[in-house]
């Protein structure tokens, strides 16, 4: 694979959205971000807006990582929620790791 094809391949994977749309991402992201903050034990430090941001970024991160094993673009609400939850927990774990190492 040439470098141009590799970049196009990764860009295509990272911008693929599921069938739930942007409103769905915000709703699912908010719930997934809130649950992820509960799982990680940092819910008291996060507000509603940050929960949504973490959940949406987690959805894209989880979707990107899971797209190598599954067809994430055709997933419905349940699969998108699970993907967002996994991605949000992973994102919060990375943030927690980086901030505690300082």
TrEMBL record:
Transmembrane regions listed in the UniProt entry: 19-36, 48-70, 76-98
Name the record gives this protein: Membrane protein YeaQ/YmgE, transglycosylase-associated protein family
Keywords: Cell membrane, Membrane, Transmembrane, Transmembrane helix
Family: Belongs to the UPF0410 family.
Pfam family of the protein (one): Transgly_assoc
Main location: membrane
Listed PANTHER family: UPF0410 PROTEIN YMGE (PTHR33884)
Membrane topology: Multi-pass membrane protein
InterPro entries documented for this protein: Transgly_assoc
Keyword Membrane carried by entry: yes
Record's subcellular location: Cell membrane
Coiled coil: none
């Amino acid at each position: 694979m040439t470098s141009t094809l590799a970049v196009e391949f990764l860009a295509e994977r990272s911008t693929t959205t599921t069938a739930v749309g942007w409103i769905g991402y915000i709703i699912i992201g908010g719930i997934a971000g809130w649950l992820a903050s509960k799982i990680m034990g940092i819910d008291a430090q996060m507000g509603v807006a940050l929960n949504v941001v973490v959940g949406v970024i987690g959805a894209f991160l989880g979707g990107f990582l899971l797209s190598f094993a599954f067809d994430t673009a055709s997933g419905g609400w349940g699969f998108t929620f699970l993907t967002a939850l996994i991605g949000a927990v992973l994102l919060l774990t990375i943030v927690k790791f980086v901030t505690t190492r300082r």
